[in-house]
């Protein structure tokens, strides 16, 4: 079917379902939509709506009839969690995606944005990574199960576009951080893990902090509020089959990142590295030309974003440990 749709401002009064609205990305999108005047936002905690339960998801869509959907719900984790529980990351994410996307199609959702991850790209993709790099090489083995699930989501959205002519899109963010992140010792990504580690070291006057790997890999980091801004921008300005990279276009080494975090929390001890632990992908920088040429760019610097995230963590530390 031919697509007959031109991107345009979304109806601020229409029903808008944010799947995963309590998570890092979903909560930021919810804040952004509220700030932009959306008056009919719909969100359900997993205790009320299990997105892996197909019949419950279809019943929810039938009852609430959302016009717009952002699929930000996912099972996520860092290198350790992905390495130890690949079945969980593959199975749970596939179930969530299949149920939400199929129900959205069944009940006539006009615009759907599927959120993936930059780990969908090959481990040794040319840098910076363009959208065309998808499916051109082997994945990073420490999170390949999660990546395969996200690739399946992109393919599902593209298939819906081809078969049903719906103007649905996918966005692939780089490494995200900010308020609402996962700071657990075993399940967190690198930046929140560093914040927790250095904050604890500062409070105990530790002489040193030892980090995983060599510190040499390069990573790109995007504040989640910038990600939320990009999502609304894409929904109102982009319609195409290709996933769109969302990032800053710049990267830092993990060593440089650790130094920024240490400075932000006020840790003044020694920074050490355990090279027996895995580094993961040597570099992962997204090419954001497609998004920047459309008219969007990130506005929150890494230093400012980390400082504000440290403050959020300190204000919520007691609850996060509960």
Largest sheet: 6 strands, parallel
The Cα radius of gyration reads 19 Å
CATH homologous superfamily name of the domain at 16-181 and 221-249 and 285-299?
Answer: NAD(P)-binding Rossmann-like Domain
CATH class of the domain at 16-181 and 221-249 and 285-299: Alpha Beta
Low-confidence runs of at least 5 consecutive residues: none
Beta percentage is 5-15%
SSE run: EHEHEHHEHEEHEEEHEEHEEHH
CATH topology of the domain at 16-181 and 221-249 and 285-299: Rossmann fold
CATH architecture of the domain at 16-181 and 221-249 and 285-299: 3-Layer(aba) Sandwich
Class by helix and strand content?
Answer: alpha/beta
The overall pLDDT average reads 94
Q: Main sheet: which strands, in order across?
A: 2-1-3-4-5-10
Tally of DSSP β-strands: 13
Task: Characterise this structure.
With 322 residues, the protein is an alpha/beta fold. The chain has a domain at 16-181 and 221-249 and 285-299: 3-Layer(aba) Sandwich (Rossmann fold), CATH 3.40.50.720. It has 10 helices and 13 strands. It has helices at residues 24-35, 54-64, 79-84, 86-106, 144-164, 190-203, 224-237, 254-265, 289-294, 302-321, and strands spanning 16-19, 41-42, 68-71, 111-115, 169-173, 175-177, 208-212, 218-219, 221-223, 244-246, 252-253, 270-274, 283-284. Strands 2-1-3-4-5-10 form a 6-stranded parallel sheet, with helices on both faces. A 3-stranded mixed sheet has the order 11-8-13. β1, α1 (24-35) and β2 (41-42) form a beta-alpha-beta unit. α1 crosses α7 (224-237). It is globular. It starts with 15 loop residues before the first strand and ends with a helix.
């Amino acid at each position: 079917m031919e697509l007959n749709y031109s991107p345009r401002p979304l109806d601020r009064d229409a029903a808008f379902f944010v799947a995963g609205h309590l998570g890092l990305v979903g909560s930021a999108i919810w804040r952004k939509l509220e700030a932009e005047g959306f008056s009919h936002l719909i969100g359900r905690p997993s205790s009320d709506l299990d997105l892996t339960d197909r019949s419950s998801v279809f019943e929810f869509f039938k009852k609430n009839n959302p016009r717009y959907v952002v699929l930000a719900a996912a099972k996520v984790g860092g290198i350790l969690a992905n390495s130890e529980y690949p079945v969980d990351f593959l199975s749970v994410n596939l179930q969530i995606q299949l149920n939400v996307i199929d129900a959205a199609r069944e009940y006539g959702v006009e615009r759907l944005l599927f959120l993936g991850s930059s780990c969908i790209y090959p481990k040794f993709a040319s840098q910076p990574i363009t959208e065309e790099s998808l499916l051109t090489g082997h994945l990073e083995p420490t999170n390949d199960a999660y990546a395969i699930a996200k690739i399946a989501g992109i393919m599902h959205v593209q298939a819906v576009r081809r078969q049903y002519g719906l103007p649905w899109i996918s966005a692939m963010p780089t490494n995200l951080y900010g308020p609402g992140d996962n700071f657990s010792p075993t399940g967190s990504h690198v930046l929140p893990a560093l914040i927790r580690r250095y904050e604890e070291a500062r409070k105990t006057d530790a002489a040193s902090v030892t980090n995983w790997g060599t510190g040499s890999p390069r990573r790109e980091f995007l504040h989640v509020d910038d990600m939320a801004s990009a999502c609304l921008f894409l929904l109102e300005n982009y319609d195409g089959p290709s996933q769109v990279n969302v990032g800053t276009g710049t990267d830092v080494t993990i060593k440089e990142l650790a130094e920024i975090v240490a400075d932000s929390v006020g840790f003044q001890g020694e920074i050490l590295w355990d090279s027996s632990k895995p580094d993961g992908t040597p570099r992962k920088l997204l090419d954001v030309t497609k998004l920047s040429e459309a008219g969007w760019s990130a506005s929150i610097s890494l230093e400012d974003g980390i400082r504000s995230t440290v403050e959020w963590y300190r204000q919520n530390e007691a609850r996060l440990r509960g």
